[in-house]
Amino acid sequence: MTEAELIKGCVHKKEACQRMLFEKYAGRMMSVCLRYARDEHEAQDILQVGFVKLFDYIHQFKNEGSLEGWMRRVFVSVALRQINKKSLRFDGIEQIDTDAVIEDAAVLAKISEDDIHKLILQLPAGYRMVFNLNVIEGYSHEEIAAMLKIQPATSRTQLLKARKMLQGLISKCFNLVMI
Amino acid sequence: MKNYSFDNIIKEKAAGHEAPVPADAWDNIKKQKKKRPAAAWWTFICLLIAAGLFGLYEWQQQARVPVIAKAVQEQDAIPGKGSVIMPDTGKRVTTAQPGEIVFKDPAGDSLAGDIQKDPAKKTAPGTLLNTADHAMPKPEGIHKNKQVPKGNAAGKMITADKAITAISTKQKPPSITRSLWVSSKNKKTSHQKEFVKTVPAINTGEENEWANIRSVNNAKDKKQAKRADRRKRNIIANAGDVSKKAGKDAGRAWQGPGKRKAFDAGTRTTVTIPATEMDEENEKVIEPALTTGKKIPVAEPAGKTNDSPGSHPQLVVNRSLLTDSAVKPKAKDIKRKRRTFYVDISSMPFIPIQNNASLQSISRTTINTASRSEFTADEIRTAVDPSFTYGIALRKKVAARWYAGIGLQYTQVKETVRLTGRETNTKFSVIKRLDNSGLFLVDDTVATVTHGSRIINATNSYDFISIPVFVQYNVWEKKNWLLSLNGGLNFNVKRVYKNSIEGNLVPAYSTAGITNKKQQQANMDIFMSLRLARTIGKNYRLYAEPTMQLNLQQYRMPGMINYKNMHKAGLTIGIAWQISY
Questions:
Q1: Closest alpha carbon to B430 in B440, B442, B418
Q2: pTM for the full predicted model
Q3: Residues lower than pLDDT 70 in chain B
Q4: Which of 43-82 (A) contact B at CB < 8 A?
Q5: pLDDT digits (tens, 9 = 90+) for B187-220
Q6: A138 vs B200: CB contact, 8 Å cut-off?
Q7: Distance from C-alpha of A11 to C-alpha of B92, rounded to nearest angstrom
Q8: Half-sphere exposure of B120 (CA within 13 A, CB side)
Q9: Is residue B193 less than 8 Å (CB to CB) from chain A?
Q10: Nearest beta carbon to residue A136 from set B3, B14, B28
Q11: Residue B444: which residues within 8 A CB-CB, separation 6 or more?
């Protein structure tokens, strides 16, 4: 079944097509939900609500980009709604001391996806949120500021700190040092 | 390490990651889905019932019931596939989007030639990639800067696009059995830029390439490319069984990791052309005759083939023909536009508001074999009951927010009539009496005249068949809702009054000039409404609109008790169906 047929089947509320779509993308969307949620239970809730909303609004997908990209945006918006934004701290958070910084991209590229995912989850909520939205989803700082009701400058600061912290985590976990 | 590199690597890793999904996730989703639609529908039905009850109450109080509703429309665009051909130095080229399947001409006939093998290079728009020297006349004095001579005429320099048109339409060498693709300049619209901005390409190597290339297609080119793609599929089907060269992943865009499958050689592809990667090993390309609609007499592969014996061209994926150019549509394609119109099926319960002509009296004379009755009503009461109008209409978009339409409606209105007056009955009976001599019996007629009061109660009906002609203006649109203003004229082309009262009724009006004999050939109403509609599914909208219809000309039909104007106030409920062709 092609993607267009799959979408059409989902628009017509065919359960078989919806199930197929779920099985294809559930893993990746679960990864998205885990990156935004505070714990696994919340991530599961976001996943379920996200797919229900997806099936309701899939007729709005206009084939102007990838289906996966559109689905990610839906799940991100669901995640942001689910998460209590007031509980996110955007203050300066104590960072891990980083004596070594990753310099070689080739070395970083060899780290597995699962490890990178786990390291991202170790970031504090505020850092992680901004890092996810800017680096992974591609939103601008202005857009992030509007979504999270913060200032764009706060978003930039959080991103810098998140990046530095993540680099420190990576170098610490994988003993990557500059020679 | 620069932040950009770090971010890209992290983004790539994170985007490609898949987390384990709970086993009961799908069951929970199913349960949530089942609850929500029922709740939404019940809410909607309860609201409708409440509105109906309120309207009934108001009608009993002789008041009008206002109602409100909405509607929305959507339509998807399908991403097209860009394919570009740009002849340059007399050589032909086929450029394709990643994943686009092109025909391979193993025989090297006419349009085949060498293609670029470097998948990393993206060809600029208009770059000639694949040519066949003998396929086209080699004009002299060709400029490499996108200028080619017109047809065989050497020395005359025109722009590439014009040259292509000239060559493809006029200068067809005998060896060419296929028409040319026409390339277009790479244009990035604001839509494309916005797309790129909001969804940055995921740096997964092959996906990145595909995402970047896709991002430059604009909506118009996608539609045209889709048409071309449809034609190509027809040609693939007509060409017979084709085999796909096993290459890299097919349909990778929508397949999850771990499920990547290569094309199987020998598999027939007739339905879709999935986004696949280009095959570096392909060397020759055949262009399908999509622009002319002709079938391709596909030559049998001259060399090795992994297909079954027979004249089957190899269906391959050409990686090296990656380009970010878009298709320049031909005139034929530009003219053919997708047409959409809407069918509205509706029912309108309404309250009639009558405005009677000033009727002074009405008389009725009935003559039977042995009796005669004359009735004169001095008290006349007529009341029209609430009723329904059923209609179907066709609508079409005529401007940005304007629609025009025409339809057909049927209305039946019941009228309760009460006539109170005096009646004189004359009854004739034949008796026998003695003649004057007293000796013989003769027949004689006796008339018996009685006077009295009479009340006549009857239920009559009006039947209307009318043609509404209307315009619609969309006032407000948001997601699944639409608010619009409708207005137009209702031409009552057929009006029938069914009078159940026996005898010949003759009304007497106080206004001069009104007679029974004067009948109008046509009757016209004007109506206006406010429609609120909601999208249901992809092609349907449910709507409700409070409607007011004013009767401009009095109804005067044979047998009518009392001429009148009959206005209507009601709530139209209907469903609109979008049809595209």
A1: B442
A2: 0.37
A3: 1-4, 34-45, 52-220, 232, 234-337, 510-522
A4: 43-44, 47-49, 51-52, 55-56, 59-69, 73
A5: 444 444 444 344 444 444 444 444 455 555 566 6
A6: yes
A7: 42
A8: 1
A9: no
A10: B14
A11: B430, B431, B432, B433
